[in-house]
Amino acid sequence: MRNNSLNVAFLSRFVSLTSMLQSKLFTKTSRQAPADEVSVNAKLLTQAGFIHKELSGVYSYLPLGLRVFRKIENIIREEMDAIGGQEITMTALQEKETWEPTNQWDDKQVDVWFKTKLKNDTQLGLAVTHEAPITKLMKSFIQSYRDLPKFVYQFQTKFRNEARAKSGIMRCREFEMKDLYSFCKNEQEHNEFYERSKVAYKNIFDRVGLGKLTYLTFASGGMFSKFSHEFQTVTEAGEDTIYVNKKHNIAINKEVFTEDVKKDLGLGDDYEEAKAVEVGNIFTLGTRFSEALGLAYQTESGDTKQVFMGSYGIGPGRVMGTVVEVYHDASGILWPMSIAPFQVHVLALGTDKAVADAAHKLYANLERAGIEVLFDDRDEMSGVKLKDADLLGLPYRAVLSSKTSSQIELKLRNEKETRLVSESELLNTVSVQKKLDTA
Amino acid sequence: MRNNSLNVAFLSRFVSLTSMLQSKLFTKTSRQAPADEVSVNAKLLTQAGFIHKELSGVYSYLPLGLRVFRKIENIIREEMDAIGGQEITMTALQEKETWEPTNQWDDKQVDVWFKTKLKNDTQLGLAVTHEAPITKLMKSFIQSYRDLPKFVYQFQTKFRNEARAKSGIMRCREFEMKDLYSFCKNEQEHNEFYERSKVAYKNIFDRVGLGKLTYLTFASGGMFSKFSHEFQTVTEAGEDTIYVNKKHNIAINKEVFTEDVKKDLGLGDDYEEAKAVEVGNIFTLGTRFSEALGLAYQTESGDTKQVFMGSYGIGPGRVMGTVVEVYHDASGILWPMSIAPFQVHVLALGTDKAVADAAHKLYANLERAGIEVLFDDRDEMSGVKLKDADLLGLPYRAVLSSKTSSQIELKLRNEKETRLVSESELLNTVSVQKKLDTA
Predict the structure, then answer these.
(1) Which residue of A169, A211, B243, B390 is most buried, as measured by CB atoms within 10 A?
(2) CA A91 from chain center: how many Å?
(3) B227-262 per-residue burial string, b: 16 or more CB within 10 A, e: under 16
(4) How far apart are the first and last CA of chain A?
(5) Fold entry, domain B342-438
(6) How do A150-159 and A174-184 pair as beta strands?
(7) What letters, b where the CB count within 10 A reaches 16 and e where it falls short, cover B109-148?
(8) pLDDT (tens digit, 9 = 90+) per residue, B167-210?
(9) Please, are residues B218 and B266 in contact by the beta-carbon 8 Å criterion?
């Protein structure tokens, strides 16, 4: 926890308090992956009952999936609060008038609009992003240099009319995005925040388990900056091509990978090509929106000046999909501890009543210790339970059977070996790991 | 807290941990209420900087408003979890095929659709409700009597193309709704859950402060039940007319207020007419959706039977708007403790540095005690601060000035009198009230 509470406007968080009996869960795993999905993330998440496809590129999140999603959201929220972000929620429905000044209403300019209309035939659009609406909103609250800087973010549903959608939850037609917007007096104040946002983003990717594979990547900028910056996670499932400089821990997007740029950055010539997913991006907007929509402030000396803006995006669903692409094997998902739906999966194998009783007791004790636990208390064959445990991918599997006697057979999802432990050893192991993971 | 954790599928909650300096908040109050609003809730919430109008019937929630909204959400979530609800989130974008079997796609049948389309001209609708999509979804998970009953809910954005929208956040074109759907083996199992849902709803309205004004109200039913039930809060701002029987603490909606129905209910003839807002409703769907969309299960004896369904709605935004309609005076809002954006408003009046220092210390101590506190540390005149405090409406106002010496002038928003207290008295008073309120 790195929250400086005096600067933190609004820290709210989901805390998943309880554990759960698998027999009560309404979702089930499927024997086979869905035939109509191409991407690994959609195949595994659907088969495991984490998500449900409504139509191509449009997914519902079911209880286990929503738990993962909320944990990712919460990590992002904490990091945004830590750099002074104030949380709001804006709306999907938007008026033409908001988008015309920046030339973004025409379908030829922005080609992923979903449009609709009111009963009186007034056209509306479903927001693909919120730079323009928030600039308009901030006009009510920014008048003077004393009102700046301000940092405002939301978790909100975006709609994008993608021609194709076959990357599962990594590229959707309807998806939640965390978008933060910064409002500064000038470029220097903006740059200071921009650097802080890089640290916050690095923290987020570290905390969700993608840190080592995710590179700060130079990408094309706009009118107000030579570059924007993407956070690209290396995986074969990626749609982007980047060039990674491992020594300096940065990358360059193919779109700007030129000799000029390489010389500019001056980090040598040691770049490796890789496929990657853009899991976040930060962008200097400058005064493009504030000029077009009239967001100005009075300086200390009484002049009028345009507000200098930036935008900072990250999609929790895309992060979740990328985690699955990176952390899976032939049997299922391997969730990092920090975002796993539960930390421990307790399995009671066989029909022995003493085993079932011991498992119920273990379940209750883990829960009491504040450990999130899913208990497979179903009336199923051992083989089915073990297979489902691999598919669901919780970090710790704790098996009780007549063979284990009073001990517990503990296995980490990402290791092959099992070992027999006592209940107190199990509690201790999980608690220590949990602390490390949420530090 | 009434959670039975063994039955609770998924308890997650927002906890607002921190307090805040008012000088950092990006929103400001306005001198006047907005001229383009008719309803009291939209006037006050906009003037106080809790919400922002995007277009008629479409509102963004700003930091203080979002805090209230999330607290209401969280109360609802806890009560839904307590009766065995499992949380998911479905999507706004929906296909025609989902709605045709129940005859709900045609604009003549459902007249509040927002429609849009994919690039290949496939028509889509923005879900006005989710009975049909969830029935389709549950076909993947319900096959046998062993899979029943199940209770599934979400907090999700609905879109309704209302012809007029002038009730502020009480009736919106885009709004979040908690909708729970129940899936039971038969009518008897359904009725048991239906009764439990009444208790959960009663708890919700009690906890948000509307309990005493909110009546379980008989309203028109459907094919499968003579009545549905609404929860109606009595206020002049209401669009509905109900007949209240105070002795039995129930009401009858005007639409079914007939001699026959009165005789049916057998509660005498003592009814008073009142204006009211429908803050929640529960409805027996029977097999309308399961028949049309093919959601059936195998009974214990091997027969095939349709699943018996119900739906249970409540809009956190409408609840919030209703609270403002009910709890306000000429100077502003009076938030109930349980959903106030912060519990205590600390005001430092005057320019005395010793007062400012004492206020900062009090702020830190309240925060440390786990009390949510907004501290007006702005460089503003006393009159402005006092006026804003009334407008924002936090339950406790704690004023420090050179007049109060080492004491604190404490005032409840809903009382006229102030009294001088010590810091420990203040801490004690607020903590006790907080405990009572969240018990």
Answers:
(1) A169
(2) 20
(3) bbbbbbbbbebbebebbbbeeeebbbbeebbeeebb
(4) 6
(5) Rossmann fold (3.40.50)
(6) antiparallel
(7) ebebbbebebeeeeebbbbbbbbbbbbbbbeebbeebebb
(8) 999 999 999 999 999 999 999 999 999 999 999 999 999 999 99
(9) no
Q: Evaluate the CA torsion angle A330, A336, A337, A339 in order and state its sign.
A: negative
Chain B residue with minimal CA distance to A379? B146
CA distances to B28, B320, B347 from B386, rounded to whole Å, are 14, 24, 8
Average pLDDT taken over every residue of chain A: 93
Residue A198 to residue A180: CA distance in whole angstroms: 13
DSSP B307: P
Q: Can you give the residue ranges of every domain in chain A?
A: 32-329, 342-438
pLDDT tens profile B307-331: 999 999 999 999 999 999 999 999 9
Give the ipTM of the model, two decimals please. 0.95
pLDDT of residue A14: 37
For residues B83 and B193, the answer to whether their CB atoms sit within 8 Å is yes
Work out the average pLDDT over B417-435: 90
The beta-carbon contacts of B364-369 under 8 Å, at least 24 apart in sequence, are B365/B423, B365/B427, B366/B19, B366/B426, B366/B427, B366/B430, B367/A5, B367/B18, B367/B19, B369/B427, B369/B431
- From B151's Cα to the closest Cα of chain A, the distance in A is 8
pLDDT given for residue B15 in this prediction = 35
Asked if A302 and A39 touch (Cβ cutoff 8 Å), the reply is: no
Helix, strand, coil share of chain A (percent; to 5):
35, 30, 35
Which residues, including other chains, have CB under 8 Å from residue B327's CB and lie 6 or more apart?
A: B209, B333, B334, B335, B336, B393, B414
Residue pair A44/A391 in contact (Cβ under 8 Å)? The answer is yes
Q: Give the Cα separation of A311 and A130 in Å (integer).
A: 9
Please enumerate in sequence order all residues whose Cβ is within 8 A of that of A163, keeping only pairs 6 or more positions apart, or say none. Answer: B119
Cβ contact, residue pair A61, B88, below 8 Å: yes
Q: How far apart are CA A156 and CA B202, in angstroms?
A: 30
First to last CA, chain B: 6
Probe site for chain A from B23, B29, B30, B114 (most A CB atoms < 10 A)? B114
Could you tell me which of A152, A158, A101, A102 has the C-alpha nearest to residue A125?
A: A158
Report how far residue B160's alpha carbon sits from residue A222's, in angstroms, rounded to the nearest whole number. 38
Picking from B105, B109, B108, the residue whose alpha carbon sits closest to that of residue B127 is B105
Residue in B with minimal Cα distance to A77: B14
Question: pTM here?
Answer: 0.95
Contact B33, B46 (CB under 8 A): yes
pLDDT band at A432 (very low <50, low <70, confident <90, very high): confident
Exposed, middle or buried by CB within 10 Å (0-12, 13-18, 19+), for A145? Answer: middle
Contact across the interface for B114 and A114, Cβ inside 8 Å: no
Per-residue pLDDT band for A9 (boundaries 50, 70, 90) equals very low
| Topology annotation, domain A32-329 | BirA Bifunctional Protein; domain 2 (3.30.930)
Mean pLDDT along residues B75-104 = 96
Helix (H, G, I), strand (E, B) or coil at B297: strand
Cross-strand pairs, A253:
A242
Compute φ and ψ for B122, nearest 5 degrees: -60, 125
Contact B14 A13 (CB under 8 A): yes
Task: Give the closest-approach CA distance of A21 to chain B in angstroms.
Answer: 7
Distance from CA of A46 to the nearest CA of B (A): 11
Give per-residue pLDDT as tens, A354-402.
999 999 999 999 999 989 999 999 999 999 999 999 999 999 999 999 9
* pLDDT at residue number B3: 33
